[in-house]
Amino acid sequence: MGFVALEALGEGRVLAADVHDINGRLLLSKGQVIAAKHLRVLKIWGVTEVDVAGSSTDDAVGQTAVDPEKLSAVAAAVTEMFKQLDMDHNTIAYLHECAVIQRYTSGLIPPNRCVPKEPTPVPDGFDFQEIHRQMTRDGIKLPEAPTIVLKLNEIIADPHTTANDVAQIVGTSPSLTALILRIVNSAAFGLPTRVDRISRAVALLGTREISALAMGVSVMKAFMEIPRDCIDMEAFLRHSLASATITRYLAALSNSSQTEQLFIAGLLHDIGKLILLKYFPVEMKTLFQATWADEEQCPFYLVERKAIGRTHAQLAGMLLKKWKFPETLQDMVVNHHRPARAVHPRETVLVQMADLIVNAVGFGTSGERVVPSFDTSIWDQVGIAGSSIKMAIRQGEQQLRAMESLFSAKGLGA
Ligand SMILES: [Fe+2]
Ligand SMILES: [Fe+2]
Fold it and tell me: Are 48 and 68 in the same domain?
């Protein structure tokens, strides 16, 4: 089996997997023989490709001669990244398989770093605890919320908000308008027609969805000025956007009513790393290096906790609280590495799973060396089939392709 673009899909092909729209609604079932009417349904609902049996575009591993040495090198490197995970768990084992195939076909052999390759020497008398002391003594002086975020907050709280109200606020920033239109027109949102106005996007997706999207993107924009020698922002944006798209997809599959909040939680889950980089660039650079040199290969949040007593997840929570983001969103971001402590663990675990997938297949990076640990017991309660991982990866890939030109320092710039 393999994915076939809708334009290349002829009648008579057999679906190898269920086809859902972006909201998780079942459009066609596995085993369905494609007829002309099915092609119309798929087109109307914005489906761009489907998984079909006996495809001539099977996974590249199956269609071209496999280089056994390269394949085993990729598998060994991926296995090394999965050290923190329970490989006996079905979904984890399937994700491992998908990651090997994805990385083999894309030539992306792990690890992929977004931090400088040259080791940063630790200065004499250097003490990570100083970060902690500064934070607790002086409090970290987080930036004030941009005006646009405050206005969007008001709009979300007002039940009488109209599409024009949202369009007016977002319209004050042409770059934000262009970015949002680009995001909602990408395959991940599956709109049946192309949208060229914010008010139309609001009419189709809802006030909350577009306002939340605008707020999330505004937060990312506020932290774009991190020095490039500290972190590869392009890779960081890919990691964030792919996580957002995949979280949203998983949210739709689990019938969550909070797809827009989960998209933003995925987008902003690692924003705490940018806060730390903004205030403590030298220390963070050293911390990233420490992660890569760590023999135990701990996930970054554990390295942070050991070194500075706080994690990027907690810092992100402080920012989102100050900027008055909804409490459920704050909670999901704060607990994205430990969903069991979240108020809504079954939704928070979707953010954790998206982060896991994105790290495993290498859609950008936020500085992790390994795939972070994962709470399989909560994931099992959600009831999403492990096989959905494959489609989630496709969703992330499509979103990144649609946004390609934005992955530059100017992409999210003012
Ligand atoms: Fe994280
Ligand atoms: Fe992450």
Answer: no
